[in-house]
Amino acid sequence: xxxxxxxxxxxSAILGRSRQSPPEGLxxxxxxxxxxxYNKEMERSLMVCPKCGHHHRVAAADRARFLFDEGTxxxxxxELRSRDPLEFRDKKKYRDRLKEASKKAGEEDSVRNYLGxxxxxxxxxxxxxxxxxxxxxxxxxxxxxxxxxxxxxxxxCPYLLVAASGGARMQEGVLSLMQMxxxxxxxxxxxxxxxxxxxxxxxxxxxxxxxxxxxxxxxVLVEPKALVGFAGPRVIRETVNQELPEGFQRAExxxxxxxxxxxxxxxxxxxxLRQLFGQLLQRPYRQN
Amino acid sequence: MPRSYLEFERPIAExxxxxxxxxGMGGDAGVNIAEEVARLREKRDRxxxxxxxxxxxxxxxxxxxxxxxxxxxxxxxxxxxxxxELHGDRAFADDGAIVGGxxxxxxxxxxxxxxxxxxxxxxxxxxxxxxxxPEGYRKALRLFQLAERFDMPVMTFIDTAGAWPGVDxxxxxxSEAIARNLMELxxxxxxxxxxxxxxxxxxxxxxIGVGDRLYMQEFTTYSVISPEGCAAILWxxxxxxxxxxxxxxxxxxxxxxxxxxxxxxxxPMGGAHADVEGAAERLDETLGKAVEELLATPRDDLLxxxxxxxxxxxxxxxER
Lengths: 288, 320
Hints:
Low-confidence stretches of chain A: 1-19
Helix content of chain B: 40-55%
Number of strands of chain A: 11
Oligomer: heterodimer
Number of domains of chain A: 2
Strand content of chain B: 15-25%
Strand content of chain A: 15-25%
Order of helices and strands of chain A: HHEEHHEEHEEHEHEHEEHHEH
Order of helices and strands of chain B: HHHHEEEHHEHHEHEEHHHEHHE
């Protein structure tokens, strides 16, 4: 067994770290089709398996790189940090969890804001970083989303949310819950001002994030096979005490039940967004 | 009504049953018994004061879902006149876990909406233990919009363990239904007054909880997750619920300190379940004032203040 086969045997060893760009010269074993893919090739196909189309999770920084035209985007609102208003402590202190998460996924908490061009159209975007405490939404995430929306309002440019979150952050208690109300209220302002808002749900988007801002886009898109829902599958299984249907809470399930507008392959995302934003911005029957 | 007692209420229960036994005895010793009963009642009241004056957060969490605690429909006849329930979401079903309708409050026409748990087993099932499905939230939204069209204040009463975590709820868009309510309530063009009267369980509570005023009764909680749920995730064991309750700081007093609510509405001695009328009187006093105040507020000011309030939620550091 050499180092390559060892890594291939344990794809999670690589994929766990693939939140950052994959290191040079490695192969990635796709957990879905089990093919070994050269990582440069994987990167070229935006972390979508070229063999089977499996959409790997992507770190926010990579997502921004995949999304915007090269050299056009700024990374903004980077100075917000979580505090510990409840002095929360479970087995670990919240403060220590924050430090660990910062080391692993950067210091910017679970949402990153950008302003950049998508095929020439300037868009304000908030992108969840699932690697930071499971993308959980606390006060910082809520504030950043609202700032991203306010930037869109000020500049009269469209707003994009890329969601990936386990839900509200327990360690900030009811303050996290209130971020649902805060972000939803800001979404209403976008709606009132006719500023287009597209929400992209990615794997996974659950709980308080799915039950607030993530489902409030004028258009709601979802990546193939993404797990999206309110209650987690485990909680539901325990509550109803039965096996869950095949594909439950997956993107295809959502589409079938009329809960999202469309499933979009990541490799088609840029042109899709550009087209949809363009269509929402045109307003041929506008009266004033 | 036969009462249920929580673990920490046991000493009160013992005294209460002694008082009941003695009161039932008559005959020659009547005078002495009356004296003894009076003495025991005094003792009981001291005990209630002592126990209720020194509750930890886990005990308060349990009180918020005390089986004898008054529910929304127990308060409706005490707070409102001419209540007419309005059913259904006009699309799928009538959710028993959320009740709504029109009513009269201090001579004003209002829309009232509240979670409703069940008292006996049959009703509990019909009401799904007060855990709404999407159609419940959609019914609530329909009634909020009715209120808006006819310039009526909205009064909501929150008491749920949370939105129903079931396959059916997910199929019909639980997340979307909750999200929609949060968004529409943030700009509903009439006064909205929300009161937690029991459990404020996460998104399922918030979906009828965004407004111009938020009050909590003294022995209620409002939290992002139940103590048991939090313990299961962070301690990997539900039996640490007491520690989770401490960490989550979910009590009315906690939320007041965090600046998230407009007031704590006191409850009668021994909690709302000990004296429903007394609890309703105190609700009426606070909510009555709030309604008058908000009805006198111009619409633009009302909506601007609500947006400002929502915009300001959260605690974070800005290191610029």
